[in-house]
Design goal:
With 312 residues, the protein is an alpha/beta fold. It is built from 14 helices and 6 strands. The chain is elongated and about 85 Å long.
Length: 312
């Protein structure tokens, strides 16, 4: 138990150190001469998409066209080929045979064709420096993390890269979709991943693991004591008993889920403080909420350690 508390304190210190370094993450990062990816949100407009494609093809580059529905991907490829007849268009998705898909990506890497119409299968693990324009169809259906990952498939060299997020209409967007698109469009600098993650957290919410509905008033109890109480509840349920959580300090004394008496608590404190060194004693007290520290004083500390001075 003593080792567990020491480990928790070490973990908390490591977390604080990491938090102090978060300010550096949000700063712009220059990586090997790479440039920020210019990002645009637009509707499917033929002249605009043709201009974007020709700009990339004329400088010898390649294009991704992401359409995340296998059923309609062939039609999208056909429409784009008609829009840009100068392009060599091929299709790739996860329902293809493994060998066929592998050969397709090898051909694209070696520039045997210049437009790859694909699903989000390219989301990770793809590094083609000559592909510097990506068109994402129905970007409103994708999450912020997906959009960030897909946008990262281009701009992997010293050339300026472009990302076009294609939507049906701004008026048809849901509130969350509009927020996601505004965030990804406004944060196009290198190293913006942490800021995008923060916006994603604000849009979707943090969930209820640490919220009132899932865990009750966790902030009033403290994470450390909450985890101890959770462990005691699990032990009690496995033993076929109801946990005694109205007296959380009892969990410090008895591991089997039974409720401790004030006399057992006094004996436990006296024995524990006798074995521990001073820093460990303070670590134990810091793990208890302030409201519970007051109970410690009344029950044991004023009796067993009358010569010590305690802050209120």
């Amino acid at each position: 138990m003593q080792l567990r508390r020491r480990q928790r304190v070490a973990d908390r210190r490591a977390q604080l150190i990491q938090i102090e370094r978060l300010d550096d993450i949000g700063e712009e990062i220059e990586v090997g001469g790479r440039l920020a990816i210019k990002t645009f949100v637009c509707e499917w407009h033929g002249p605009t998409l043709r201009e974007a494609a020709l700009r990339e093809l004329r400088r010898g580059g390649q294009i991704y066209l992401v359409h995340n529905e296998v059923q309609g991907i062939e039609k999208v490829a056909s429409d784009f080929a008609g829009l840009v007849p100068e392009a060599q268009v091929r299709v790739g998705h996860g329902q293809m045979r493994e060998r066929e898909l592998e050969q397709l990506m090898v051909d694209f890497y070696h520039r045997r064709f210049n437009v790859l119409v694909c699903t989000t299968i390219i989301e990770s693990g793809i590094d083609v420096p000559t592909a510097n324009t990506i068109l994402i169809d129905r970007a409103d259906r994708l999450g912020l993390a997906q959009l960030h990952q897909l946008r990262g498939r281009v701009g992997r060299s010293h050339h300026r890269a472009y990302a076009y997020l294609i939507i049906p209409s701004r008026r048809a967007l849901s509130a969350d979709a509009a927020k996601r698109l505004d965030a990804i469009e406004s944060m196009e600098d290198l190293g913006a991943g942490f800021l995008l993650a923060t916006h994603d957290l604000e849009i979707r919410g943090a969930g209820e693991f640490l919220g009132e509905q899932q865990s009750g008033e966790l902030t009033e109890v403290g994470l450390t004591l909450y985890l101890d109480m959770l462990e005691q509840a699990v032990v009690a349920f496995r033993a076929g008993r109801a946990p005694q959580l109205e007296r959380p300090l009892a969990a410090v004394v008895l591991k089997d889920g039974a409720q401790a008496t004030p006399e057992e608590l006094r004996a436990f404190l006296a024995q524990s403080f006798a074995k521990w060194q001073l820093p460990d004693a303070f670590v134990f007290i810091e793990a208890i909420p302030r409201t519970s520290v007051g109970k410690f004083k009344k029950i044991a500390l004023r009796e067993q350690f009358a010569n010590w001075k305690w802050e209120s």
